[in-house]
């Protein structure tokens, strides 16, 4: 089975499983990052692990809830967020998804296949290195817009953070969005709907890598906030701060505005 076919099977089954979970938002534990684990997080993660073990393709999984899991199978490393946007689900906001990537090694640059499904509406996004990015079987590309005053920026921050550089930068854009499900949101950079994503928290888990790769494979530029390339390890301890832009012109303008 092709890896993307496996991921699409997993995504579609996860969507059906989520609909059948009793008390999906009940807190049942604490994940590897110290956040509450809801029943939906746990059940979806278990469902994906079962599929990955049955596939026999991988030997290692980095995942939001358990942290790191040894798999039964081949040489691939998988990176998983079983429920990106848990707080949206908790509050009844229909924007949350599942994100998964496959890699031939243990670094971000080793990722070859990525997949995100919006579990609320069923939209699917995926990419294969060297073959581009897709939404519901249609090839997608990032926006060619270079006028920042005509662009939409996505961002994430916590109210406890020092957000001065972030807020002064996003004010230069036409408008801004904060979705609360970052892997899914990054796919709208890939599709051309929005032009930039900024996260300066140094707190985003590597389990969101699928959204980043899908954006890059569609043409996006991703660096740290100083413009340096990213190649973090695929580890439960990896935390990111980054800027993702639809094209080089927007990216250079944003890095200059941030000035951090």
Fold topology:
Elements lengths: L2 H18 L6 E4 L5 E3 H17 L2 E6 L3 E4 L5 E9 L1 H5 L6 E7 L7 E8 L5 E5 L3 E4 L2 E3 L11 E5 L7 H7 L4 E3 L4 H9 L5 E10 L3 H9 L3 E3 L15 E7 L2 H11 L2
Parallel strand pairs: 3-5, 11-12, 11-13
Antiparallel strand pairs: 1-2, 3-4, 5-6, 6-7, 7-8, 8-9, 9-10, 13-15, 14-15
Looking at this protein, list some descriptive labels.
single chain; alpha+beta; Fructose-1,6-Bisphosphatase, Chain A, domain 1; D-Maltodextrin-Binding Protein, domain 2; eight-stranded mixed β-sheet; 7 helices; 15 strands; 31% strand
Structural features, described:
This protein is of the alpha+beta class. It is built from 7 helices and 15 strands. The chain folds into 2 domains: about 140 residues, Fructose-1,6-Bisphosphatase, subunit A, domain 1 (Fructose-1,6-Bisphosphatase, Chain A, domain 1), CATH 3.30.540.10; about 110 residues, D-Maltodextrin-Binding Protein, domain 2 (3-Layer(aba) Sandwich), CATH 3.40.190. It has an 8-stranded mixed β-sheet with strand order 4-3-5-6-7-8-9-10, with helices on both faces. A hairpin with a 2-residue loop joins strand 9 and strand 10. Helix 1 packs antiparallel against helix 2. The relative contact order is 0.14.
């Amino acid at each position: 089975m092709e890896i993307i076919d496996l991921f699409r099977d997993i995504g579609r089954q996860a969507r059906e499983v989520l609909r059948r979970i009793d008390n999906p938002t009940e807190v049942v534990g604490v994940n590897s990052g110290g956040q509450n684990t809801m029943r939906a997080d746990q059940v979806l993660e278990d469902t994906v692990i079962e599929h990955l073990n049955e596939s026999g393709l991988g030997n290692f999984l980095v995942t939001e809830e358990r942290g790191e899991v040894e798999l039964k199978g081949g040489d691939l490393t998988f990176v998983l967020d079983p429920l990106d946007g848990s707080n949206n689900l908790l509050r009844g906001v229909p924007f949350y998804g599942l994100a998964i990537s496959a890699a031939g090694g243990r670094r971000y640059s080793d990722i070859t296949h990525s997949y995100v499904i919006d579990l609320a509406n069923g939209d699917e996004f995926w990419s294969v290195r060297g073959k581009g990015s897709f939404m519901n079987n249609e090839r997608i590309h990032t926006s060619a817009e270079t006028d920042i005053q005509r662009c939409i920026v996505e961002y994430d921050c916590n109210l406890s953070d020092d957000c001065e550089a972030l807020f002064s930068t996003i004010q230069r854009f036409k408008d801004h969005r904060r979705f609360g499900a970052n892997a899914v949101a990054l796919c709208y950079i890939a599709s051309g709907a929005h032009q930039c994503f900024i996260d300066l928290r140094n707190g985003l888990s590597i389990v969101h890598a699928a959204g980043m790769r899908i954006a890059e494979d569609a043409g996006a530029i991703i660096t740290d906030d100083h413009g340096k390339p990213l190649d973090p390890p695929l580890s439960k301890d990896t935390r990111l701060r980054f800027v993702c832009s639809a094209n080089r012109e927007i990216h250079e303008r944003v890095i200059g505005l941030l000035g951090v």
